Design the sequence.
């Protein structure tokens, strides 16, 4: 069974940093692209970052480019999201997702971890 | 960025109804569209990939159709467990973008 378990969320002040982790199990981690998607409270879904199966390529939207860094440790089956210079608008639940065999971004989702940016 | 406009924003439905919702893209995205269902307090779940392919384990009351700029998700014989928000996602262009959602509520 595919499982994705996020951790690392919490309350952080504006301008500070936070690192999220996602431990994967139930599949061959280094075969799949991985993605972070977020959802602000009561709002819709927003793609945050994706990384190739080898870790050699990564992509971001303009809203987080230069502040967030996605990475992975295939030996540990773990995905990371380093978030720097956090803003109030980064407040959201962050989901770790796995691509499908067909491609795409969200064949499987974790339960999410809440990040609250506030003073 | 490719904008996805979902309609209607919300619907009042009854168990057993046939429900149709739409997703319109601001440019041609081929068939690179997925549909998700998100129940209250839960993570989204993939229902349809590639516009019309039912994902593993998804009941056959869910049907996706469309290509280019216009896409439809149909739920035949609506069940109580289908009360949720439904999102479309396009991944033909970077950045991938989600629609704003259609919320199904009980009449």
Sequence:
């Amino acid at each position: 069974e595919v499982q994705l378990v996020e951790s690392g969320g919490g309350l952080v002040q504006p301008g500070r940093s936070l690192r999220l982790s996602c431990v994967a199990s139930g599949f061959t981690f280094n075969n799949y692209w991985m993605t972070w998607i977020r959802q602000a409270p009561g709002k819709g879904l927003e793609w945050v970052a994706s990384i190739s199966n080898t870790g050699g390529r990564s992509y971001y939207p303009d809203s987080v480019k230069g502040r967030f860094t996605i990475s992975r440790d295939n030996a540990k089956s773990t995905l990371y999201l380093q978030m720097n210079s956090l803003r109030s608008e980064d407040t959201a639940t962050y989901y770790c997702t796995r691509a499908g065999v067909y491609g795409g971004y969200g064949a499987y989702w974790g339960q999410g971890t809440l990040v609250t940016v506030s003073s | 960025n490719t904008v996805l406009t979902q309609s209607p924003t919300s619907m009042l439905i009854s168990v057993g109804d046939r429900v149709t919702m739409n997703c319109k893209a601001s440019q041609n995205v081929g068939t690179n569209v997925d549909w998700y269902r998100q129940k209250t307090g839960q993570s989204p779940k993939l229902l349809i990939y590639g516009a019309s392919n039912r994902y593993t384990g998804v009941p056959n009351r869910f049907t996706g159709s469309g290509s280019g700029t216009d896409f439809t998700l149909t739920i035949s014989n609506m069940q109580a467990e289908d009360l949720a928000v439904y999102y479309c996602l396009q991944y033909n262009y970077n950045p991938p973008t989600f629609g704003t959602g259609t919320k199904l509520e009980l009449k």
